[in-house]
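Why run this: before we spend reagent on co-expression, it is cheaper to look at a predicted model of the complex and decide which construct boundaries make sense. The entries below are exactly what would go into the expression plan.
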Amino acid sequence: MNDTPVIEAIHLRKTFGETVALEDLSLSLPRNEILGLLGVNGAGKTTALNILLGLTTPTSGSLRLFGRELRTHRVEILRRCNFASAYVALPGNLTVGQNLWTFAQLYGVKNHRAKVTELLEHLEIPHLRKRVTGQLSAGEATRVQLCKAFLNDPELLLLDEPTASLDPDISDKVRTFIRARQRERQTSIVYTSHNMRDIEEVCDRLLFIHKGRVVAAGTPAEVLALFQRDSLEDVFIQIARSEAGDVFAAAPAPK
Amino acid sequence: MNPRIVFALVCRYLFLYTRNWVRLAEVVFWPTMELVTWGFLTRYLDSKMGGGEAGPFTWLLGGVIFWDVMFRSQQGVALSFLEDVWTRNLLNIFVAPVRPAEYLASAFGIGLVRIAITVLILWSLSWVFFRFNLLDIGPALVPFFGCLLVFGWAIGMFATALIMRFGQAAENLAWAVPFLIQPLTAVYYPVAVMPGWLQWAALTLPSTHVFEGMRGVMAGLGFSWSHFAWAVALNAVFLLLAALFYGRTLATVRAKGLLTKVATN
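The model came back. Tokens follow.
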């Protein structure tokens, strides 16, 4: 088994002019682990995700994916990754089948027809294949996005709030699918969400980012113990209401 | 360069055109309206000169069609990018294993498809209604069209890079950039009517040499190898500059984190 971390980020820093968006982010993600990236809006998690995806270049620090520099091996690395976000869509004028065919080609998926069929069935949406993507409900569109995200059996998957704006039933189905698929394929996942139930159910390890800095890291149980709280939601609120260097200070207990 | 990726991206646009008649109408409607307007103007001018149906001003129609070749080629590149912005699909593409060269090659391909459709329609209409047969230009048509196609790609790359850099506020550049150079290109008049200093500027554009060459062929002066050579050489320069500008802008937007802003705003 190859022990090279899927992600190895060392002292990543990103500034936009005078603003420090990310300060000294170091993380190592092994194979077959789901890492939750948490933080309030503007904490720096989107910047971190964009750097991991190669959409934004870090100001300093080193980033290796599968043991290689993302900057110099971009295409080779991206072939082994995939991505889905609540804020990104597939072209609405194309049918689901056309969209998935296109991405299957881009990722070089072999036997793509069978693969798409299998994923659509797994996500309980085989009937959507010929539907126009722009006419899908939020839940259907999310599942189609997930289908696209798992098309190439990625070794690293980046999911940006995949259950945002979904009802509890669909959210549960999405979480179950992600977890099942991840176990089956030993995928490493970076997962961002504001839904703490998502995080508790899905993630093996958490990274809380606040004001550009990592303020807590560990398994959900470790983080709860560290903050002496009963739920991740309470931890989230405590961090959100604290200053960057003062996250353990006794914040008023969230109601 | 992976042909499978280029093919998939081209197909994606073709799916879009076959599923959305408004998009297809845009490729047909505007060139047709332009041709009809210039066609009647040509007919009027020819009648004033006492010419027949295919009179001395018919080359204006050649100008219309040639201009459209360049314009549609440029639009093929810029609108391909904007299409991804409008559909909020840009990030999906930019995090896929697609090289910038493959993305651009697909946009070039779309430019070619748009031109093929437009030229076919304009050629038919101008022949049927205004007795102007584009094929009368002869074999010179191929190198002329080729030069305009390539120059359109170069301008499209400039426009796309500017849209990437300045966001959707700069969207109008997709339409505006070609018209910035239209007066210098001397589409509907010879370069000789410009002031001397402006002629020098005009002749730095490959398109100007094509239009001068086209008028020469239509006036029976034969194919100008000199204009063609200039057009090819200048195209090489513009294409190189456009590629450098595009690559540099892509690096800048990545450094400034602008790609996600353009893609999600």
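Chain B touches chain A through 34 residues (CB under 8 Å). The first helix of chain B runs from residue 3 to 19. Bring this page to Monday's planning discussion.
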